[in-house]
Amino acid sequence: MPKHLWMIFFAALVVFSGPAAAQQDTKQVLVRGAGQETCAKWLRERANWITGSSHTYLNWILGFIAAYNDFVHTQEPASNAGIDVGVENDPLISWIDQYCRAHPQDAIYAVSTALINDLKKR
Fold first, then answer.
1. Minimal CB count within 10 Å: which of 23, 26, 27, 36?
2. What is the SS3 assignment for 20?
3. DSSP codes joined into one string, 56-95
4. In Å, how far are 29, 63, 116 from 14, measured between CA atoms?
């Protein structure tokens, strides 16, 4: 399937596929999976990482960034790498921790979009 059709399919899937809605500014987007959980849950899970808990929320965020890179960032002229190129996971995790401490009721989706907006400033 051509890439532009995948983009349309992905957009339709996001808009029409989820039971929960996460809100950023005035835009409303339907979100599935860990993206609809809260920062408070992120922080609770983070407290257990040392004991081997799952990194479900981090994987959701990294997948969201990968989708952004594929469907948005690389479509821009002269952009052939991701917005997070050269950034290891630890600084991303620290950024998310800080954001979540300040916004415990925000959804993981909101954290992901805020992180992308911050990475775009680099």
1. 26
2. strand
3. HHHHHHHHHHHHHHHHTGGGSTT--S-TTTT--HHHHHHH
4. 7, 13, 17
Instruction: Classify 121 as helix, strand or coil.
Output: coil
Q: What is the pLDDT of residues 30-67, one digit of tens each?
A: 888 899 999 999 999 888 886 655 688 999 999 999 99
Q: Are 51 and 119 in contact (CB under 8 A)?
A: no
96 touches 23 (CB < 8 A): no
Both tokens of 116, joined, read: 């992308």
The answer, as to whether pTM is greater than 0.85, is no
Q: Domain locations in the chain?
A: 33-120
φ/ψ of residue 36, rounded to 5: -95, -5
DSSP state of 77: T
User: Residue for token digits 């993981």?
Assistant: 108
In terms of DSSP bridges, do strands 27-31 and 20-24 run parallel, antiparallel, or are they unpaired? antiparallel
- Least Cα distance to 97 among 24, 43, 52 occurs for 43
Map tokens 């500014």 to a residue: 25
